[in-house]
Queue: 2 jobs
Job 1
Amino acid sequence: MKRSLILVALVAVLAIVLANVLDPRGYILRIVCLILLAATLGQCWNIVGGLANQISLGHAAFFGIGAYCSTVLQVKWGITPWLGIFAGMLLAMVAAFILSLPTMRLKGPYFALATLAFGEACRILATAMPGVTGGPQGISVPFVGDSWAMMQFKGAGNYVYLFAGLFVIVSIVFALLAYGKMGYLLRAVRENEEAAEVSGVNTLRVKLIGSLISAALTAATGTLFAQFTFFFDPESVFSVAHISIHAALIAIVGGVGTLAGPIIGALLIVPLEELLTTYFSNDAAGIAPFIFGLILVAVVILRPRGLVSIFGRRRGRPSGLQQRDAPPADPAFMAKKRAGAES
Amino acid sequence: MSALIQTLVDGVLIGGVYGVIAVGLSLVFGVLKIVNFAQAEFLMIGMYAGWFAWAHLGLDPIVGAFLALLIGFALGALCQRLFVQHILNAPAVAQIFLTVGLLTVLENGALLLFGSDFRTVRTPYQTIALELGPIFLSVPYLVAFVAAVAMSVLLFLLLNRTWLGRAIRATSQDRDAACLFGIDTRLIYTIAFGLGTGLTAFGGGIILSYAAVSPTAGAQFVVLMFTVVVLGGLGSVMGALVGGVIVGVIQSVSTLFMPIQLQNLVLFIVFITALAFWPQGLLGRAAR
């Protein structure tokens, strides 16, 4: 844990140093921002996906809610995103609560499917309400020039501070959740929900708190994204491929359920994506997601604990995708397990 | 009134096709206990197979659909052997993201190979409709519906009247017992997965006369397929058909009183509600 926190500090400090030495409008700082954004998003997903094993494929819903909430407040009433960000977080928590009512007891693929449908429903709603959201044409953040009060700048330079700040906050929240009392509860739910319930863990409450925190932080990330790109539409912020799956991809490639995982994932995925889109964008659309899909398949099959496992010793708490509850190729065990499940 | 009947008829015709598309998913889950997120991509692959058969061999999409069935079977069996086999006992998160990874690879692979153009076929019966009193039966819908029902009957016979079908059902019920009775369950897994993806590809082939194919054609069907399967009950051929018809009718009736872009919203809400309230009855025991 200590080494992971050092990694968090190192990444944040390095980003801020770069922001001070490099050209604030340069390409490299843009990449730095995107890396921090991706790491933050991956970490938000990791709170529910990694700690509580609630595999969400709908985090784009909260991301989009954050982006739209702050931007609509600015467009309609000129409210600063510093307030809008909290409005977005609140709305995302309400959405997460509503979603949790029907989905709280679902597991594994069923939870994933329900969240997938929820994210898509949000995208359709945003498209179908042109009066509020601008509809499929998208919406622009009103431009006022460099302004800390309105959280917007001409170059990427100052955004590094914002993204680094949120990155550190989300990392600390994750560390507190993972290594505090809540972490034990979340892990208990992940390892064996029935056993946790019997031991007196209020599993529904634990999962609900986890998903509310994750939703709020994802919405905050969405607000920063909106301020950073100035223009977005339902297809981009509610995208299954570019937000929901991407968030999970970053956490899984790095290492599910670990603090360092999404950071390592983002450091690998974002530069790779930039390289691929720069070199191939015109000749081969789709090359970047194609390769990411291959990476995802390869990681799941070859290195289920993520890239963290290359650096880390096998010390500490187990995490990631490794097999835990079902030793493979043990028919007797599987039969017993199935008999147990059916009784 | 006739508008309502017309909508219902359209819904049933479209829904029958949803049934054959989703029955493949149901089969894969029933036998391998894997929720295959990449299943809808085989619909897209089937549509491309049908399109190329039409464009280069001059085959009608319904005939091309049988070619799609073969290609879907071969590709699916290959995917199962290369990838899915490794994660049969893995935790849910690995199973989900392996198939999500496959989904991404297949969709973007198609984009790289075929470009993002929408492709359509032309058939002599494409614009014809039969008049039955006040309602019209669109011939391409009708042809696709008949093909879907015929294929479902064939599948039903395969599963219930042949040795292979019994082996598949046995493996689905109890893998270890099936193994003890001399069934090569690894082979059955490959065949069942291939059969599932092949059937979905066949569904792609038969809708080609009224739907355009593009690399994202499959992605639009992901939630729809799962809705059909959840409503109809997993593993059952008839269930998938019934679920398909229900979804088709919901879709077409919702257009009566809602803007068309909200059509899928209704579907998603039905899906989440169905998952929440009838996971046991309709999805089997695994949903607990």
Job 2
Amino acid sequence: MNRYTRRTFALEAILIAVAAVFMVPLYVLVAVALRDPDSTAGFLGFTWPLRFENLATAWTESAMGPSLLNSVIITTVSVVLVIVVASTASYTITRRTQRWSRGVFYLFLTGFLFPGQLALLPLYLMFSQLGLVGNPLSVILIYVAGHMPFAIFLYCAFLRDLPRDYEEAATLDGARPLRTFRSIVFPLIRPVTGTVAILTALAVWNDFLNPLLYLTGGSSRTAPLSVYTFVGEYSANWPLVFSALITSVIPILIAYVFMQRFIMRGFATGLKG
Amino acid sequence: MTVQTTPTEAAIATMSKRQRRPGRRRPQGGLAIRPPIWFVLPAVLLYLAVVVTPNLQGVLFSFTDWDGFTKGFSFVGLQNYSSVMADDNATRAITNTFVLTLVVAIGQNILGLLLALGVNTQIKSRYLLRLVFFLPVVLTPIVAGYLWKYLLTPGGTLNTVLASLGLGSLQQDWLGNPDLVLYSVCAAIIWQGAGFSMVIYLAGLQAVPAEALEAAAIDGAGPIRRTWSITLPLINGAIVVNLLLAVLGSLKQFDTVFSMTGGGPAGASETMATIVYKTAFLYLQYPNALAQAVILTIVVGVIGFFQYRLTQRKALA
């Protein structure tokens, strides 16, 4: 069964053909982005010479540089906060066995049932009263709170199965709870931290609705929001629009190429739970 | 275990207890690990303020004529809900959401499963192919939406390809035809999500014992029979999880629809998530938007709950 037969070859050929079809949209993305905006060339082909200046124009016109920086900052801060807040909370929830700790766990689980649309409007009005509209803090708070159910669920599942012997040894050696957590528990739950970090980072980076509501028109636009604004201004100019699309996704594509194994594993382990 | 016992005794005692009853909850009387309660406070306070409170407010205000600015409001019962149900645009968005969810959940799972079965073989390019099929998953959804909008415009890639293949009669206005637009959006979503389903199926497939498949092969079962009778029953956990995630994601679908069609033409591809956004932030009809959002929440909650129960049962079986 494990030999490379003629049938395996046929399967391989079919799958490569499917993969080629899968890549057509991305091929078109690059082809159109580098096209002469005034040409009426066919929709599939490149035009020569390649117009790399489209990328430069789109980059400056859409202010993509600052937007990418904003995206990086917002994503990093959100991921770090999700990890710190969720891991500490899960530690107490799993190690305290009173009834309230189960109650707190179920409180977070109810979050899976809220699609987010219901809170949209009340939250927006609350944040605008607090003067947070336009401030990246608003979306960061939403991301951190919104990812609590999933992060706490994963951390708690892992912590329940984690032997307590190391923590007991540390406690006997006189370590205080905070020290025990930082030096013993947190390193042991690193696999979950990796999964949470990857899934949160992607979700935050790619989110569009919250930046649309809270950061439109301000100076802290994220990359997807700048894409949206740019498309609104240059809707007829596909080469420039596609150049902006490319510049906005380059960081994730680079991250994907270098971390694809971790990313796929993160999805597989994180979402089975 | 208290201070009287020496550390080693305590450790041995807990270890032996642990070994005697593996998998059980911690035996009583062990060395107490009591992490401070303030560890949970940031998470709980943030969650109550940013998730629980606005959701409860949303439910409450959906029964009122609250306008968001003045303090006063009065209860109007189910009036907002009846006006949502009387609104053709809203009811069509509800139907659209169900159609989209059904098509995406089935399409994405079939494609994802086939891809997973394909790359879970001895073919040489399997790692590269996984990379290719998964790539759209990490792409920003609105970027994918604009990309597909271009592919499907009347003079766009798909129609050009059809014409050059001599299939010009199949050309369509994929995004302008109200009967087609929803399925065009589904195609884009399936393209983006298939790799995601594939990865979860792969994790399931890798747990299928090779002996079972070899035994079936010796008994004369062909590849299709082996997949149908051995592999699929063994990965039904992955099937249920995949369906759950695809359904919940599709019910909340916003980004791809918003960037590809904006809900058009004339509301033909509107989903519940897009009309909630428009009713609230473009038309400023707050109570109606909240009523729509409550309906969406109930749909997601009920379906999610039953599917979750199903995963639990599958996990036990």
